[in-house]
Amino acid sequence: MKTGRSTRRVAASLGIAAIISMGALTACGSEKNEAPSETSTTTTTSTSPSASPTEKAPRLDPNGPNPFSPDVKAPPAPTAPPGDN
User: Fold this and answer.
1) How far is 76 from 79, CA to CA, in rounded Å?
2) 83 φψ region: left (φ > 0), alpha (ψ -120 to 50), beta (else)
3) 49 or 21: which carries more pLDDT confidence?
4) What phi and psi values does residue 3 have, to the nearest 5 degrees?
5) CB 60 within 8 A of CB 67
6) Which of 40, 50, 67, 84 would disulfide-bridge 58, Cβ 3.0–4.6 Å?
7) Is pLDDT of 45 > 80?
8) Contacts of 67 (CB under 8 A, 6+ apart)
9) Reported confidence tier of residue 27, pLDDT bands at 50, 70, 90
10) CA angle centred on 60, ends 59 and 63, rounded to 5°
11) Residue 16: which pLDDT band, with cuts at 50, 70 and 90?
12) What pLDDT sits at residue 22?
């Protein structure tokens, strides 16, 4: 009996502590900071090498075969007379 009560007490105290912590974090986070009166802007430019593709896709010809179709063909389904399993 004591174990059940102490477990409930611990769970309740942890829940209350979590609610208090969330309230404190919300109160601290809602402060509005004023923007600085003076602003300075700096711009930096850097050049990076252009990206080049590693592979080139084959050109698709509307009248030609599809280069993306697989070469392996599945064997046809076996046919059996009706009633044979």
Assistant:
1) 9
2) left
3) 21
4) -65, -40
5) yes
6) 67
7) no
8) 58, 60
9) confident
10) 135
11) very high
12) 92
Contact assessment for residue 67 and residue 58, using Cβ atoms and an 8 Å cutoff: yes
Nearest to 66 by CA among 58, 75, 54, 77: 58
Place of tokens 């050109």: 59
- Global pTM value: 0.34
**Identity at 11, one-letter amino acid code:** A
What is the C-alpha end-to-end distance of the chain, expressed in Å? 65
